[in-house]
From TrEMBL:
Organism: Rehaibacterium terrae
EC number: 2.8.1.7
Cited Pfam families: Aminotran_5
CDD domains: SufS_like (cd06453)
Keywords, alphabetical: Lyase, Pyridoxal phosphate, Transferase
GO function terms (MF aspect): cysteine desulfurase activity; lyase activity; pyridoxal phosphate binding
Record-given protein name: Cysteine desulfurase
Amino acid sequence: MSAIRPTPVAATGGIDWARVRADFPLLAREIHGKPLVYLDSANTGQKPEAVIAAVDEFYRRHNANVSRAVHTLGEEATTAYEASRDKLARHLNVRRDELVFTSGTTLAINLVAYSYALPRLKPGDAILLTRMEHHANIVPWQLVAERTGARIKVAEITPEGELDLDAMHAAMTPEVKILGVTHVSNVLGTVNPVREICREARRRGIVSVVDGSQAVPHRAVDITAIGCDFYAFTGHKMCGPTGTGALWARREHLETMPPFLGGGEMIREVRFDGTVFNDPPHKFEAGTPNIAGFIGLGAAVDYLATLGMANVDAREQELLAHATEAMAKIDGLRIIGTAKEKAAVISFLLEGAHAHDLATLLDLEGVAVRSGHHCAHPLMQFYGVPATCRASLAFYNTHEEIERFVAALGKVRRLLV
Protein backbone atom coordinates (compact mmCIF):
# COMPACT_ATOMS: atom_id res chain seq x y z
CA MET A 1 0.00 0.00 0.00
CA SER A 2 1.18 3.53 -0.68
CA ALA A 3 1.59 5.97 2.18
CA ILE A 4 1.84 9.72 2.55
CA ARG A 5 5.11 10.65 4.20
CA PRO A 6 5.46 13.47 6.74
CA THR A 7 6.98 16.72 5.58
CA PRO A 8 9.71 17.68 8.06
CA VAL A 9 12.27 19.89 6.39
CA ALA A 10 15.80 20.51 7.59
CA ALA A 11 15.95 24.02 9.05
CA THR A 12 19.22 25.22 10.57
CA GLY A 13 20.18 21.65 11.31
CA GLY A 14 16.83 20.66 12.83
CA ILE A 15 13.24 19.90 11.91
CA ASP A 16 10.82 22.49 10.61
CA TRP A 17 8.08 21.87 13.16
CA ALA A 18 5.71 24.26 11.41
CA ARG A 19 5.82 21.99 8.37
CA VAL A 20 5.24 18.98 10.61
CA ARG A 21 2.25 20.65 12.22
CA ALA A 22 0.71 21.17 8.78
CA ASP A 23 0.49 17.36 8.47
CA PHE A 24 -2.34 17.38 11.05
CA PRO A 25 -5.55 18.66 9.44
CA LEU A 26 -7.62 18.93 12.61
CA LEU A 27 -5.21 21.46 14.10
CA ALA A 28 -6.38 24.02 11.51
CA ARG A 29 -9.86 24.15 13.08
CA GLU A 30 -11.38 27.07 14.91
CA ILE A 31 -13.32 26.59 18.14
CA HIS A 32 -15.81 29.27 19.15
CA GLY A 33 -14.33 31.47 16.44
CA LYS A 34 -10.79 31.16 17.78
CA PRO A 35 -7.84 29.09 16.53
CA LEU A 36 -7.76 25.71 18.21
CA VAL A 37 -5.05 25.17 20.83
CA TYR A 38 -5.10 21.42 21.37
CA LEU A 39 -3.48 20.53 24.70
CA ASP A 40 -5.05 17.12 25.33
CA SER A 41 -2.63 14.71 23.66
CA ALA A 42 -2.34 12.56 26.78
CA ASN A 43 -6.01 11.80 26.20
CA THR A 44 -5.63 11.08 22.50
CA GLY A 45 -3.09 12.14 19.89
CA GLN A 46 -4.07 13.88 16.69
CA LYS A 47 -3.69 12.04 13.39
CA PRO A 48 -1.44 13.08 10.51
CA GLU A 49 -2.49 12.83 6.89
CA ALA A 50 -0.30 9.73 6.52
CA VAL A 51 -2.47 7.81 8.99
CA ILE A 52 -5.76 9.10 7.63
CA ALA A 53 -4.66 8.21 4.10
CA ALA A 54 -3.59 4.69 5.09
CA VAL A 55 -7.00 3.94 6.63
CA ASP A 56 -8.81 5.50 3.68
CA GLU A 57 -6.76 3.55 1.13
CA PHE A 58 -7.41 0.26 2.92
CA TYR A 59 -11.16 0.72 2.75
CA ARG A 60 -11.09 2.03 -0.82
CA ARG A 61 -8.72 -0.51 -2.39
CA HIS A 62 -7.93 -3.47 -0.12
CA ASN A 63 -10.88 -4.08 2.22
CA ALA A 64 -11.06 -7.76 3.13
CA ASN A 65 -10.74 -9.90 6.23
CA VAL A 66 -7.31 -11.13 7.30
CA SER A 67 -5.99 -14.69 7.47
CA ARG A 68 -9.20 -16.16 6.08
CA ALA A 69 -9.02 -15.95 2.29
CA VAL A 70 -6.57 -16.82 -0.47
CA HIS A 71 -7.97 -14.27 -2.91
CA THR A 72 -5.92 -11.19 -3.74
CA LEU A 73 -7.74 -8.75 -1.48
CA GLY A 74 -7.45 -11.11 1.48
CA GLU A 75 -3.73 -11.56 0.90
CA GLU A 76 -3.21 -7.80 0.56
CA ALA A 77 -5.10 -7.11 3.78
CA THR A 78 -3.20 -9.78 5.70
CA THR A 79 0.16 -8.58 4.42
CA ALA A 80 -0.55 -4.97 5.38
CA TYR A 81 -1.96 -5.94 8.77
CA GLU A 82 1.00 -8.13 9.72
CA ALA A 83 3.43 -5.53 8.38
CA SER A 84 2.19 -3.25 11.14
CA ARG A 85 3.22 -5.87 13.71
CA ASP A 86 6.68 -5.92 12.15
CA LYS A 87 6.92 -2.13 12.32
CA LEU A 88 5.89 -2.01 15.96
CA ALA A 89 8.30 -4.79 16.86
CA ARG A 90 11.21 -2.91 15.29
CA HIS A 91 10.07 0.36 16.88
CA LEU A 92 10.11 -1.19 20.37
CA ASN A 93 13.02 -3.62 19.87
CA VAL A 94 11.05 -6.82 20.47
CA ARG A 95 10.20 -10.00 18.58
CA ARG A 96 7.09 -9.84 16.44
CA ASP A 97 5.78 -13.13 17.84
CA GLU A 98 5.80 -11.60 21.35
CA LEU A 99 3.53 -8.71 20.36
CA VAL A 100 -0.21 -9.31 20.84
CA PHE A 101 -2.56 -6.84 19.18
CA THR A 102 -5.28 -5.52 21.49
CA SER A 103 -7.78 -2.67 21.48
CA GLY A 104 -5.48 -0.74 23.80
CA THR A 105 -3.73 -0.78 27.17
CA THR A 106 -6.88 -1.60 29.13
CA LEU A 107 -7.51 -4.85 27.26
CA ALA A 108 -3.80 -5.66 27.35
CA ILE A 109 -3.59 -5.41 31.15
CA ASN A 110 -6.84 -7.35 31.54
CA LEU A 111 -5.32 -10.07 29.36
CA VAL A 112 -2.38 -10.33 31.77
CA ALA A 113 -4.63 -10.22 34.82
CA TYR A 114 -6.98 -12.97 33.69
CA SER A 115 -4.76 -15.16 31.55
CA TYR A 116 -1.51 -14.96 33.51
CA ALA A 117 -2.35 -13.90 37.08
CA LEU A 118 -5.73 -15.47 37.77
CA PRO A 119 -4.56 -19.09 37.41
CA ARG A 120 -1.43 -18.44 39.51
CA LEU A 121 -2.39 -16.20 42.44
CA LYS A 122 -3.62 -17.67 45.72
CA PRO A 123 -4.65 -16.44 49.17
CA GLY A 124 -1.75 -14.70 50.89
CA ASP A 125 -0.19 -13.46 47.64
CA ALA A 126 0.08 -9.74 46.95
CA ILE A 127 0.02 -7.42 43.94
CA LEU A 128 2.12 -4.26 44.29
CA LEU A 129 0.82 -1.14 42.52
CA THR A 130 1.94 2.48 42.63
CA ARG A 131 -0.11 5.42 43.86
CA MET A 132 0.09 7.02 40.40
CA GLU A 133 -1.46 4.19 38.38
CA HIS A 134 -4.27 4.74 35.90
CA HIS A 135 -7.44 2.86 36.79
CA ALA A 136 -6.65 0.44 33.95
CA ASN A 137 -3.69 -0.78 36.02
CA ILE A 138 -5.68 -0.91 39.27
CA VAL A 139 -9.19 -2.23 38.66
CA PRO A 140 -8.24 -5.46 36.81
CA TRP A 141 -5.92 -6.35 39.69
CA GLN A 142 -8.65 -5.65 42.25
CA LEU A 143 -11.04 -7.95 40.38
CA VAL A 144 -8.44 -10.72 40.19
CA ALA A 145 -7.50 -10.24 43.85
CA GLU A 146 -11.14 -10.68 44.87
CA ARG A 147 -11.32 -13.96 42.98
CA THR A 148 -8.02 -15.38 44.20
CA GLY A 149 -7.72 -14.11 47.78
CA ALA A 150 -4.67 -12.04 46.93
CA ARG A 151 -4.34 -8.48 48.25
CA ILE A 152 -3.25 -5.13 46.85
CA LYS A 153 -0.22 -3.30 48.24
CA VAL A 154 0.53 0.32 47.36
CA ALA A 155 3.90 1.91 46.63
CA GLU A 156 3.61 5.55 47.69
CA ILE A 157 4.96 8.73 46.12
CA THR A 158 6.59 11.92 47.33
CA PRO A 159 4.76 15.30 47.30
CA GLU A 160 6.72 16.14 44.15
CA GLY A 161 5.12 13.15 42.43
CA GLU A 162 8.08 10.78 42.34
CA LEU A 163 8.11 7.19 43.49
CA ASP A 164 9.81 6.58 46.83
CA LEU A 165 12.09 3.90 45.45
CA ASP A 166 13.53 2.83 48.81
CA ALA A 167 10.03 2.29 50.17
CA MET A 168 9.00 0.58 46.96
CA HIS A 169 11.88 -1.87 47.10
CA ALA A 170 11.12 -2.51 50.77
CA ALA A 171 7.53 -3.33 49.76
CA MET A 172 8.78 -6.04 47.38
CA THR A 173 8.38 -8.69 50.05
CA PRO A 174 8.18 -12.45 49.33
CA GLU A 175 4.37 -12.50 49.09
CA VAL A 176 4.42 -10.00 46.20
CA LYS A 177 4.03 -11.92 42.96
CA ILE A 178 3.11 -9.14 40.52
CA LEU A 179 4.17 -5.52 40.20
CA GLY A 180 2.17 -3.00 38.18
CA VAL A 181 3.90 0.28 37.36
CA THR A 182 3.31 3.08 34.88
CA HIS A 183 6.24 4.14 32.73
CA VAL A 184 4.97 7.75 32.60
CA SER A 185 2.19 9.14 34.79
CA ASN A 186 -0.78 10.38 32.79
CA VAL A 187 -1.51 12.99 35.49
CA LEU A 188 1.88 14.14 36.75
CA GLY A 189 4.06 13.48 33.73
CA THR A 190 6.53 11.71 36.04
CA VAL A 191 8.89 9.42 34.14
CA ASN A 192 9.54 6.42 36.35
CA PRO A 193 12.87 4.55 36.28
CA VAL A 194 11.21 1.39 35.03
CA ARG A 195 14.46 -0.30 34.05
CA GLU A 196 15.74 -0.10 37.62
CA ILE A 197 12.36 -1.06 39.07
CA CYS A 198 11.93 -4.08 36.81
CA ARG A 199 15.49 -5.23 37.48
CA GLU A 200 14.81 -5.18 41.21
CA ALA A 201 11.49 -6.99 40.73
CA ARG A 202 13.07 -9.68 38.58
CA ARG A 203 15.85 -10.18 41.14
CA ARG A 204 13.14 -10.96 43.70
CA GLY A 205 11.09 -13.21 41.40
CA ILE A 206 8.30 -10.66 40.93
CA VAL A 207 6.59 -10.45 37.54
CA SER A 208 6.47 -6.85 36.26
CA VAL A 209 3.68 -5.27 34.21
CA VAL A 210 4.48 -1.84 32.75
CA ASP A 211 1.82 0.57 31.47
CA GLY A 212 3.50 2.34 28.57
CA SER A 213 0.55 4.37 27.30
CA GLN A 214 2.14 7.73 27.99
CA ALA A 215 5.70 6.68 27.14
CA VAL A 216 5.56 5.09 23.69
CA PRO A 217 4.03 8.17 21.97
CA HIS A 218 6.63 10.58 23.31
CA ARG A 219 10.04 8.94 23.68
CA ALA A 220 12.16 6.10 22.38
CA VAL A 221 11.16 2.92 24.21
CA ASP A 222 13.36 -0.19 24.16
CA ILE A 223 11.28 -2.85 25.88
CA THR A 224 14.06 -5.41 25.79
CA ALA A 225 16.36 -3.02 27.64
CA ILE A 226 13.69 -2.27 30.25
CA GLY A 227 13.64 -5.94 31.22
CA CYS A 228 9.98 -6.20 32.21
CA ASP A 229 7.73 -9.25 31.83
CA PHE A 230 4.80 -7.44 30.22
CA TYR A 231 4.52 -4.03 28.54
CA ALA A 232 1.20 -2.55 27.40
CA PHE A 233 0.52 0.50 25.24
CA THR A 234 -2.20 2.23 23.26
CA GLY A 235 -2.14 3.19 19.58
CA HIS A 236 -4.43 6.20 19.54
CA LYS A 237 -2.09 8.20 21.78
CA MET A 238 0.79 7.73 19.30
CA CYS A 239 -0.97 9.31 16.30
CA GLY A 240 -2.72 6.02 15.40
CA PRO A 241 -6.44 5.19 15.19
CA THR A 242 -8.57 4.45 18.22
CA GLY A 243 -9.20 0.82 19.12
CA THR A 244 -5.56 -0.17 18.62
CA GLY A 245 -2.76 -1.13 20.98
CA ALA A 246 -0.67 -4.08 22.00
CA LEU A 247 0.70 -6.21 24.79
CA TRP A 248 4.30 -7.31 24.68
CA ALA A 249 5.06 -10.39 26.79
CA ARG A 250 8.04 -12.64 27.27
CA ARG A 251 7.71 -15.67 25.03
CA GLU A 252 7.79 -18.09 27.95
CA HIS A 253 4.71 -16.40 29.41
CA LEU A 254 2.80 -16.45 26.14
CA GLU A 255 3.54 -20.15 25.73
CA THR A 256 2.06 -21.08 29.12
CA MET A 257 -0.83 -18.60 29.33
CA PRO A 258 -4.27 -19.90 28.29
CA PRO A 259 -6.30 -17.86 25.80
CA PHE A 260 -8.23 -14.94 27.26
CA LEU A 261 -10.92 -14.95 24.56
CA GLY A 262 -12.19 -17.78 22.38
CA GLY A 263 -13.43 -17.79 18.80
CA GLY A 264 -12.10 -17.48 15.31
CA GLU A 265 -8.45 -16.91 14.33
CA MET A 266 -7.04 -18.00 17.72
CA ILE A 267 -7.54 -21.67 16.87
CA ARG A 268 -5.71 -24.29 14.87
CA GLU A 269 -8.33 -27.05 15.08
CA VAL A 270 -11.70 -27.32 16.82
CA ARG A 271 -13.50 -30.52 17.80
CA PHE A 272 -16.32 -30.96 20.27
CA ASP A 273 -13.97 -32.88 22.50
CA GLY A 274 -11.35 -30.12 22.53
CA THR A 275 -9.55 -27.35 20.67
CA VAL A 276 -5.95 -26.93 19.55
CA PHE A 277 -4.99 -23.27 19.85
CA ASN A 278 -2.92 -21.20 17.46
CA ASP A 279 0.63 -20.16 18.27
CA PRO A 280 1.25 -16.86 20.08
CA PRO A 281 0.54 -14.08 19.45
CA HIS A 282 -2.49 -15.22 17.43
CA LYS A 283 -3.62 -17.44 20.31
CA PHE A 284 -4.74 -14.24 22.04
CA GLU A 285 -6.32 -12.48 19.06
CA ALA A 286 -9.84 -13.90 18.77
CA GLY A 287 -12.25 -12.64 16.13
CA THR A 288 -11.96 -10.12 13.33
CA PRO A 289 -9.48 -7.44 14.39
CA ASN A 290 -9.50 -3.71 13.78
CA ILE A 291 -7.71 -4.24 10.47
CA ALA A 292 -7.89 -0.70 9.14
CA GLY A 293 -6.95 0.64 12.56
CA PHE A 294 -3.78 -1.42 12.78
CA ILE A 295 -2.79 -0.54 9.23
CA GLY A 296 -3.22 3.08 10.31
CA LEU A 297 -1.10 2.37 13.38
CA GLY A 298 1.62 1.03 11.13
CA ALA A 299 1.50 4.30 9.22
CA ALA A 300 1.77 6.18 12.52
CA VAL A 301 4.90 4.21 13.42
CA ASP A 302 6.38 5.09 10.02
CA TYR A 303 5.54 8.73 10.62
CA LEU A 304 7.12 8.86 14.08
CA ALA A 305 10.17 6.95 12.85
CA THR A 306 10.67 9.53 10.12
CA LEU A 307 10.65 12.31 12.70
CA GLY A 308 12.83 10.32 15.09
CA MET A 309 11.69 9.72 18.65
CA ALA A 310 14.73 11.55 20.05
CA ASN A 311 13.61 14.63 18.11
CA VAL A 312 10.03 14.21 19.32
CA ASP A 313 11.21 13.96 22.93
CA ALA A 314 13.50 16.99 22.62
CA ARG A 315 10.77 19.09 21.03
CA GLU A 316 8.28 18.23 23.74
CA GLN A 317 10.78 18.94 26.51
CA GLU A 318 11.37 22.37 24.97
CA LEU A 319 7.63 23.07 24.96
CA LEU A 320 7.25 21.72 28.50
CA ALA A 321 9.94 24.06 29.81
CA HIS A 322 8.28 27.05 28.12
CA ALA A 323 4.82 26.20 29.43
CA THR A 324 6.01 25.46 32.97
CA GLU A 325 7.93 28.72 33.22
CA ALA A 326 5.03 30.77 31.84
CA MET A 327 2.40 29.12 34.04
CA ALA A 328 4.50 29.60 37.18
CA LYS A 329 4.12 33.36 36.75
CA ILE A 330 0.31 33.24 37.05
CA ASP A 331 -0.86 34.24 40.52
CA GLY A 332 -2.97 31.59 42.21
CA LEU A 333 -1.98 28.80 39.82
CA ARG A 334 -0.72 25.56 41.37
CA ILE A 335 1.14 22.95 39.34
CA ILE A 336 0.72 19.42 40.69
CA GLY A 337 3.65 17.16 39.94
CA THR A 338 7.16 18.57 39.88
CA ALA A 339 9.30 15.48 39.36
CA LYS A 340 12.85 15.98 38.15
CA GLU A 341 12.16 13.92 35.03
CA LYS A 342 8.83 14.67 33.40
CA ALA A 343 7.04 14.16 30.14
CA ALA A 344 5.14 17.10 28.65
CA VAL A 345 2.14 16.84 30.98
CA ILE A 346 1.14 19.61 33.40
CA SER A 347 -1.68 19.16 35.90
CA PHE A 348 -2.77 22.37 37.55
CA LEU A 349 -5.41 24.21 39.55
CA LEU A 350 -6.34 27.88 39.61
CA GLU A 351 -7.36 29.39 42.91
CA GLY A 352 -11.09 30.08 43.03
CA ALA A 353 -11.97 27.92 40.03
CA HIS A 354 -13.23 24.36 39.87
CA ALA A 355 -11.28 22.33 37.32
CA HIS A 356 -14.37 21.69 35.18
CA ASP A 357 -15.34 25.37 35.14
CA LEU A 358 -11.79 26.33 34.26
CA ALA A 359 -11.68 23.86 31.36
CA THR A 360 -15.06 25.11 30.10
CA LEU A 361 -13.92 28.75 30.13
CA LEU A 362 -10.66 27.81 28.41
CA ASP A 363 -12.64 26.02 25.71
CA LEU A 364 -14.47 29.28 25.00
CA GLU A 365 -11.02 30.69 24.21
CA GLY A 366 -10.33 27.80 21.82
CA VAL A 367 -8.05 25.97 24.29
CA ALA A 368 -8.67 22.24 24.79
CA VAL A 369 -7.45 20.85 28.11
CA ARG A 370 -8.79 17.94 30.09
CA SER A 371 -10.41 18.31 33.49
CA GLY A 372 -11.38 15.65 36.04
CA HIS A 373 -9.68 12.87 37.96
CA HIS A 374 -7.98 11.53 34.80
CA CYS A 375 -8.85 7.93 35.76
CA ALA A 376 -6.54 8.27 38.77
CA HIS A 377 -8.74 8.59 41.87
CA PRO A 378 -6.06 7.34 44.31
CA LEU A 379 -3.69 10.03 43.06
CA MET A 380 -6.32 12.76 43.51
CA GLN A 381 -6.88 11.49 47.05
CA PHE A 382 -3.15 11.76 47.75
CA TYR A 383 -3.13 15.44 46.78
CA GLY A 384 -6.45 16.12 48.48
CA VAL A 385 -8.22 17.42 45.37
CA PRO A 386 -11.31 16.17 43.55
CA ALA A 387 -9.96 17.01 40.09
CA THR A 388 -7.33 18.94 38.17
CA CYS A 389 -6.96 20.51 34.78
CA ARG A 390 -4.31 18.93 32.59
CA ALA A 391 -2.44 20.45 29.68
CA SER A 392 -0.63 17.75 27.73
CA LEU A 393 1.67 18.77 24.91
CA ALA A 394 2.86 17.04 21.77
CA PHE A 395 5.48 17.75 19.15
CA TYR A 396 2.88 19.38 16.89
CA ASN A 397 2.19 22.13 19.43
CA THR A 398 3.90 25.51 19.14
CA HIS A 399 5.36 28.16 21.40
CA GLU A 400 2.71 30.56 20.11
CA GLU A 401 0.01 28.17 21.31
CA ILE A 402 1.56 28.13 24.76
CA GLU A 403 1.41 31.93 24.83
CA ARG A 404 -2.28 31.84 23.79
CA PHE A 405 -2.95 29.24 26.47
CA VAL A 406 -1.28 31.34 29.15
CA ALA A 407 -3.13 34.44 27.96
CA ALA A 408 -6.39 32.52 28.18
CA LEU A 409 -5.54 31.44 31.73
CA GLY A 410 -4.94 35.07 32.64
CA LYS A 411 -8.27 36.10 31.13
CA VAL A 412 -10.10 33.37 33.03
CA ARG A 413 -8.38 34.37 36.26
CA ARG A 414 -9.54 37.98 35.81
CA LEU A 415 -13.09 36.78 35.24
CA LEU A 416 -13.06 34.71 38.42
CA VAL A 417 -11.28 37.03 40.83
